[in-house]
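Morning - adenosine-5'-diphosphate inputs below, output right after.
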Amino acid sequence: MAVYNEERSKWDSGSIKTTTLFSFVVFALFLLTVIWGLANFFMDTYYERARSQEVIRTANVLATQFRQNRQDFPTYAVQTAGANGIYIRMDTPSESLVYDGTSTVIDSGQFTEDVQHISNMLAESHTGSVSDTILGQSQGGSRLLYATGIMTSGEENTLYIIAPLHPDPATIRILRDMLLYISSIVLVASFVLAYMLSRRITLPIENLTRSATELSQGNYNVKFDGSAFTETRELARALNKASYEMEKTDFYQREILANVSHDLKTPLTMIRSYAEKIMDISGDNPERRSADLGVIINETERLNKLVGDIMSVSNLQSNNIELHKETFDIVEAARDVYESYNVLSSSQGFEIHFHPCKSCYVVGDRTRLMQVMNNFVDNAVKYAGDGKYIDIKLTRNGKNVRFRCIDHGIGIPSDEIAHVWDKYYRTSANHERAIEGTGLGLAIVKGILTLHNAKYGVDSKEGKGSDFWFELETVRKPNKKTMSTMELDRREIEEKRKEEAANGQES
Ligand code: ADP
């Protein structure tokens, strides 16, 4: 028996809680690794590309300014150098000026080497502007060099820009700190979120497990509650239904056990007493002996039927029944059933009427379908009460044919009608009257009709009588040749069944 273990379910590595928590934390760590990786390994490349695009843009604006408004150019260049943290130098034929962000100065020689280097590149190039990256620790670390030629009224001028390629260490520190805060917040948030989510998911499951444990201990009153989620609500509904069915089956099984043991006990007691009677009293008197033996044979028959019904139900339940389908005239089969009952029942004061329709053919297991009809008529006789008047009808209903067995007996209370097809079910009125039966007949009927995909049902009114029916699709009448082969097949099937029954009895 599975025992719910709260402690274990909390720390179980296979539990939903642990898995959710683990998944969230792994995801958060992955996210942080990506962010930190990007920040550390790709920051420089990204910064360099963004910086060079910016430098080119700035150079274009400066060139335009130089061409169009030379007077204001120094002010503009000083502002641009200050705002962007770059070194700007303009070489005209007459002078060489450096704009460092605070003033315009004459070249101090600070970046002479760099200027020389990029100036050589510009001289060799035919594009009008060149750029290059210098990697190194000296003179402020890696930097981007840019040079472009500007022609104004026949004079050749050159604009140089030198931009450091490393972000300001203070900015980097602030960024790193911010990233650290964000990382911690993401981690803590993912922990809290995972915990809350896993609790929300597992709570209904834990409730369902607790209820299932109670059910397994035989408490059928337990109610399953799936609360929060559609899936768990559906599971709870299915479990409630299963628990109701279990309770019902349990109840019927207890009941049948009482009934079956009673039904078995009566014929066994009879057999034993009549056997003793034959031994002690009637053994020497052939007439009385054969009368007593007759009782013994009848009781054995009852036992045989009971055991047969139990076997049929268990076979139907385990899908262990093979149908021998054939095309046959259902009207003819119903007539056979009617005739067998008519002889038997007229002696007991029953009036059975047969109302056939025109002969029609169906595909199915003739013997099993006759078993169904027999069962309906058998019940009609059993539950006829004082209305000993029974109608067996066959009616056409479109493409279908309907077999009906109508009695005018005790009927079935409306709230019990749905249950008569359940195995071991016997109506309440039945208990009072103590009519002999097992409650298995209609369960067998249901099984057989379901295997035939037949529609079936009962219309009944308490005290007025019942109309048990089933419906099958009709087919065209087979031709004569196939009919005779079918007849042969049927004989063969019946022989086989008899053989099986005999073997069953032997074992
Ligand atoms: P049983 O062996 O008890 O007759 P069935 O499965 O054939 O078992 O029938 C189940 C129950 O349905 C019966 O016990 C009876 O209460 C009710 N029932 C069946 N047929 C009729 C009928 N024709 N009239 C009234 N009640 C019926």
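Note: Residues 291 and 482 are 47 Å apart (CA to CA).

O.
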